[in-house]
Design a protein that fits this description.
heterotrimer; A mainly alpha; B mainly alpha; C mainly alpha; A: mainly alpha; Four Helix Bundle (Hemerythrin (Met), subunit A); 6 helices; B: 3 helices; 0% strand
């Protein structure tokens, strides 16, 4: 049963991930990405990492993607507003992405396949255990993450307000 | 309730809700009349002729809201594991969260002072 | 496995049809409540007291023209109301409608899915619900719709934060994210006073959290006084300006379903869910049935509050709405959380 769901979710996530790349309309891409996130959340649930699954949904599908949609709506998405890509640009992009692909495959070729780690406790991914580990063993990284948030907040405000100070 | 199988009813609910939505949308498409003409299919703009389309830029304030929402949302999520383990973590956990919240509040007041959330200016 | 599937299918279908029935009849109730508050009669032609009005409305919506503007993004235009309705229908899955029924020696839980992260599941579905309005409004390719959609999504994400923060105090008191545990945790005695078994409702300990949550629920469902996304005086119909037939109906029904579900969530989180004083005296099966009745009583009360507020208060301005959400509710809910945590930690240390 779990295996069946695993294959269904994997199939949908790979399919929609490909559609994200190949669809012409960026709004469609965002929607496919949301579906991909849903199936990945499904995979988390199959591994009984329930809190991670729902956080994945709330943060990625519910928050980050809203921001993406906002940005896409800001860019003028008219057919005629699309910048014309000339041939040289296309060739350059094909070569560079091909090189990246080559590097990645070369790097992955020599990588060792690790033994799948089997969770000793099947309730490992539940919020109760997660909170215990987060606030006891990993309390310093947890506090450090708040500094990260602070810096990103400052960055966001600086970028967002810059335009206004020059306008006024 | 702690296992994967407790999510199975949600899958069933997804099928029921999705099926219902699909069925009704198809039905309403088939049942109603369809009369098309150029003037009627234009976008509604209070009776005057439509001027351009709605692919326009809008205020940066909405983006600020969305960016800040993403950041604050992640921070709010961090409180949940604490809240669930609240009783076991005791005083030490409370101090850890207090520190986290103070960073949260510093960021929050920075955002307020910078006027990133001023809508009437 | 098979009997579980049958059991859950029956439960899902009955919850689903009850939800749809209630949403349909809420349109009627809303008009009757509005009429009552404005000293009018309201719909009274279709059947006695006009009770067949919702059926006539639904039938009419099916047979109206399914208009799709020429300039719109067709598939996204169709998907918008679909997503709105779908997420609204999904939210009800984790609400405990009652304790459990004993049918021929088998314990049948009255909750579709008792998941470990119940309350976050609802938050997740609410955050996905934004897309329905956003995509629908954008795909219409109409300036009013776009404005409505952007306003709606901005408003919903802003109030989601305060909502998430206000729930944390409840989670601290219960130590669980499961709505079943939260409801069951309110069955005790209120402050240890005898004869109040079943009245240990969270609202008595968390009145501030309750008010924050209630305000956020109004904003999340786009109900007045937070109905700026569809305020007719500025934006015609807001995000659903270009919609007609059942697609418009889906947006409206989704709003009513959300209202019903939020009332259920408010009742479960703060008003004891299916608990009421004296429930422990009843025999097992009667307890479940009386519990359902009690929960629905609370739900209908909150739905009435939703309507009462809509027909009483004027609408906010958009900057006032954002001011309330970000500068008042978020600091207030953080304060509420810290006071709860501090006080409970202090009490445990003693």
């Amino acid at each position: 049963m779990t295996e069946l769901f695993f294959y269904i979710f994997s199939f949908i996530s790979i399919l929609t991930a490909l559609l994200v790349v190949f669809s012409k309309n960026p709004i469609h891409s965002v929607l496919y990405l949301i579906v991909t996130f849903f199936t990945i959340a499904g995979q988390y649930i199959l591994m009984n990492a329930q809190f991670l699954a729902i956080v994945h949904l709330i943060v990625y599908a519910g928050a980050v993607m809203v921001l993406f949609l906002f940005v896409l709506m800001l860019l003028n998405l008219n057919e005629n507003a699309e910048p014309k890509k000339d041939l040289i640009l296309k060739i350059v992009s094909i070569i560079s992405s091909g090189l990246l692909f080559l590097t990645l495959t070369a790097a992955l070729k020599d990588a060792e396949t690790s033994q799948p780690s089997i969770a000793t406790n099947e309730n490992l991914g539940l919020v109760k255990n997660l909170g215990n580990v987060l606030f006891k063993e990993y309390v310093v990284p947890f506090e450090l993450s708040s500094i990260l948030f602070l810096s990103s907040m400052v960055g966001a405000v600086m970028l967002g307000k810059k335009e206004q100070t020059t306008n006024n | 309730m702690n296992t994967t199988s407790s999510y199975f009813p949600i899958v069933m609910q997804t099928l029921v809700a999705g099926g219902f939505v699909g069925l009704v949308l198809t039905l309403t498409h088939l049942l109603g009349p369809s009369r098309k003409n150029k003037t009627k299919d234009a976008n509604f703009e209070c009776g005057v002729e439509s001027d351009g389309d709605a692919r326009v830029r809008f205020s940066i304030k909405y983006f600020m809201t969305a960016i800040l929402f993403v950041l604050f949302d992640v921070e709010v999520i961090f409180f949940y594991p604490y809240a669930v383990n609240f009783k076991e973590l005791g005083g030490e956990g409370f101090l850890a969260v207090l520190m986290f919240v103070s960073f949260f509040l510093i960021g929050f007041f920075y955002v307020l002072k910078k006027g990133a959330l001023e809508w009437d200016k | 496995m098979l009997d579980l599937i049958i059991e859950k299918s029956i439960l899902i279908l009955s919850v689903f049809s009850v939800t749809l029935l209630i949403a349909t009849y809420l349109t009627y109730t809303e008009r009757k409540v509005a009429a009552f508050l404005q000293d009018r009669i309201g719909p009274d032609r279709a059947g006695p007291f006009g009770i067949f009005q919702p059926l006539a409305d639904a039938g009419k919506m099916f047979f109206k023209e399914d208009f799709i503007p020429a300039a719109s993004a067709k598939w996204l235009f169709i998907m918008g109301p679909g997503i709105a309705m779908f997420t609204a229908c999904m939210t009800g899955a984790v609400i405990p409608w009652g304790t459990s029924l004993n049918i021929m020696g088998r314990e049948v839980s009255l909750q579709i899915a008792d998941v470990n992260i119940g309350i976050l599941y609802i938050m997740g579905m609410v955050s996905i619900g934004v897309y329905g309005i956003m995509i629908g409004g954008w795909a219409s390719n109409n300036k009013y719709s776009l404005m409505g959609a952007i306003r709606a999504s901005s408003q919903m994400i802003s109030y989601e934060l305060a909502m998430g923060l206000s729930i944390i105090s409840i989670v601290m008191m219960t130590g669980s994210l499961s709505l079943k545990d939260i409801a069951a945790g309110q069955s005790g005695q209120l402050f240890g006073i005898p004869l109040t078994t079943g009245l240990d409702w969270n609202v008595f300990v968390q009145p501030v959290g309750f008010i924050i949550f209630l305000v956020c629920a109004f904003a999340e469902t786009n109900r007045a006084p937070f109905d700026l996304p569809e305020c007719e005086s500025e934006l015609i119909g807001g995000y659903h300006t270009e919609y007609s037939s059942m697609k418009l109906g889906f947006f409206l029904f989704a709003e009513y379903i959300n209202m019903f579900i939020s009332s259920a969530v408010i009742s479960t989180l703060y008003f004891g869910g299916y608990n009421f004083p004296g429930i422990h005296l009843l025999p097992h099966n009667l307890q479940a049935i009386a519990g359902i009745a009690a929960l629905f009583g609370k739900i209908f009360f909150f739905i009435f509050v939703f309507m009462w507020v809509r027909w009483t208060l004027p609408r906010f301005r958009y900057d006032q709405l954002m001011h309330l959400g970000w500068k008042i509710l978020i600091p207030l809910s953080i304060l509420n959380m810290l006071v709860t945590a501090g006080w409970m930690t202090f009490r445990n240390l003693l």
